[in-house]
Structure formats: structure tokens, C-alpha cells
Task: structure prediction
Amino acid sequence: MSVADAGAGRLSVSFECFPPKSAEAEVKLWETIGKLAPLNPDFVSVTYGAGGSTRDRTHRTVARLIQETHLKPAAHLTTVAASRGEVDGVLRQYWDAGVRHLVALRGDPPGGLAEAFTPHPDGYANATELVAAAKRLADFEISVGVYPEKHPESPSIEHDLDVIRAKIDAGASRGISQFFFEAETFLRFRDRLAKAGIALPIAPGIMPVTNFNGLRKMAAGCGAHVPPWLERLFEGLDDDPETRKLVAATTAAQLCLKLAEEGVALFHFYTLNRAELTLAACRMLGVLPEAKEQAA
Ligand code: FAD
Result:
């Protein structure tokens, strides 16, 4: 049974993609966007590579979303390896291109989280400072990253809550969570926020993946816990992509349905530039294509 069958209202979804590296990947991304656009997402966000490595590609992808689709883009931006002046320049460029929604992030150290983060000597030190800078420059809508399992560098859950409060005070109006695999993880996080009186709307970040080894690496890179039951589900399927896909679609849909049953109404999908698993999970949530003329 989908949530729509259960009589719930339409849920809001958003999709994350990354800027393509090659002409072939670019074709794949725009096919994906063409398939996801009829679901009428709140926005499509485009990531920003470590140290600004995708700066131009992120900008081009966002500009194309504005020029060629009805979709609202959200451009990611990080503080890594850039002075305040450089970051402000990117912010101005985004605003002038018609971008009105940012996902403002500190970014990871260029060598990954094993390294300590060192801000650029003349740069913004964290996401809160970036949010404040963006708000000073123009009236962007701003989403920020939040961590149901705590940010790996953070000394405590309480400190994480203080950081979320600081991001809200600086102008953030939405949180997007790091990915996680058990509904309880997000629901406990939601309870902590409610108890602390933090009313920021937060979309759980859903990562539907078929490549379990890739997933394990990504999870290790950002401190997300991979439960043993998930590992067991993918055991022995390395050479069986069809079954892997079915298992991935089922686990993503189960996670989404459980969250929706608990009243979660916003969902953010890390699409990895692929449509099928996200389409399947959205369908199970009752989020179906809208009128044809809405499509990209
Ligand atoms: P912050 O909120 O600045 O927090 C980083 C750390 O500093 C935390 O441990 C926090 O507790 C601590 N901290 C923050 N403020 C203070 C303070 N005032 N005093 C003391 N400690 C403080 N990375 C990319 O490179 N490109 C992307 O496009 C990208 N997209 C992402 C999208 C989402 C939805 C998420 C959740 C993450 C994304 N990331 C991306 C990864 C992100 O950059 C990392 O998780 C990074 O380690 C933290 O970013 P943040 O914005 O949460 O940082």
C-alpha cells in the first residue's frame, strides 16, 4: 500500500544531482532530470565539488536548469579553499543567473574527514558564516546540512543542536539530512530537535543505491552507520545487478514509507544522477507524475 492509498496528502520531494564530468555523463544526467521533472519536485539541487573543483560545472548545470526547465534549482556552495571574496563572487554569480535557493555547506577537508578541517586563512570558517554572508548579499532561500547521527567532527549531540540553532539565526530556513538507513535514526533526531525547541523543517536525505561497496565507502566517508542487516541483504549479490536493484528499491521504499507513516512530509533524494530507484520510491510514497506539460 502506498501512502497515497492510505489517504495522506501529497508529500514534497526534492532531488540532488552532481554536475557531470563528461559529455556522456551529461546526456545521462539530462535524461534523469527529464524522467524526474514530471514529479514536480520542490527543487533540484546541484552539488559543489571539494575545494570548488566543480565550480564552473555546477554553475553550468544550475544555469541550464533555469533556462531549459520549469524546475527550481538549489545551488550547493562550500567554503573550502576559497577566500571570502571568492565565495562572495560565486554568490553574486548565482544570484545574477537567477538562482534563489542555496544549499550552504562548509565542505569537507580536501583529503576527506580523516584530515582536520582548516579554513582558508581569509575564508568563511563554517556553514553558519556562509549562510550569514549569503543573506547579507541577497535574499536567498537557504538550506543547510544536518546530521541525524551527529556530524563526525562534532564533540556532542548538544553541540550539533547549537550549530543548527546558529544556522537558523544566520538565515537558514530548511535542513537536509545526511543519509541514514533506519527510520528510527531520523525519528530520534526529530524528537531531539522538538525537545530542544528547534522548529526547522528538515527533509531526510534518502540514498537509494545498488552498489553496496560504493555505499560502504561513502558511508565511511561521512560517518553514516551501515546496519548489519543491510549488509546481509546485499551479501553475495556483487554479480547480480538485477536482484541488487530490486533489493535497493525495496529498502529505500520501506524506509520512506516508515518515515511517511510517522508524519514526515518532505523527502530529499540523493539520486546519484540516476532516476529509477528514486522514481520507484516516490511512486511508493504516492508522488506520481503530474500533468505532461510540467515536464522538462
Ligand atoms: P558546519 O555546519 O560548518 O559544521 C562542520 C563542523 O564544524 C561540525 O562538526 C560542527 O559541529 C562544527 N561547527 C560548526 N560551526 C561551529 C562553531 N561556530 N564553533 C565550533 N564548531 C562549529 N560537501 C561538498 O563538498 N559539496 C556538496 O555539494 C555537499 N553537499 C552536501 C549536502 C548535504 C545535504 C549534506 C548533509 C552534506 C553535504 N556535503 C557536501 C558534505 C558537507 O560539506 C560535510 O558534511 C561537512 O563536513 C560539514 O558541512 P556543514 O555545512 O554541515 O558544516
